[in-house]
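Human: Not sure, check this?
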Amino acid sequence: MTEEKAIRDGEEQLHFDPGDRGQAEVTFIGHIRSDWARDKAPRNLTEARALGSGKARIELDPVYARGLAGLEVGKPIWVLYWMDRGRRDLIVQAPHHRPDPRGVFSLRSPVRPNPIAMAAVRITDLDAVRGVIEIDATDAFDMTPVVDIKPWIEGIDIPPEG
């Protein structure tokens, strides 16, 4: 487990580290590069965009560069990444911006049993040969591992009305 912080009033901690119960293997395909680090990062993509993007880019392991074929500058993508520096043992959290504690699955917090994050971002530049995708913003720390990249597709990625 990574560096633990104090538990706030109303938070609940699991009696185990979910990382010790791994049941699958994940291969990181690259890393997010940014200006961000602990205590110096935006809280979300909206804040990151307001701060000027953080020089956001994805650098793939060269063996995965061919997987970028078909992506285009200006198009949106989903980036799934592994928040490797967050704790994993809180099941109820008390965020500063909420009046009451909430379950982890109702939050976008990086503190979760499986530290997977996803962000819808726009490609601003693309070097498919080198495996580098510049993106409009990120809230991820520098060197955050990337799990996957998927195209954002209208009609599929918008929930139905109702």
Notes: The mean pLDDT is 91. DSSP finds one helix and nine strands in the chain. Strands lie at 12-13, 30-33, 57-60, 76-82, 90-93, 102-103, 116-127, 132-135, 144-151. The CA atoms of residues 32 and 58 lie 5 Å apart.
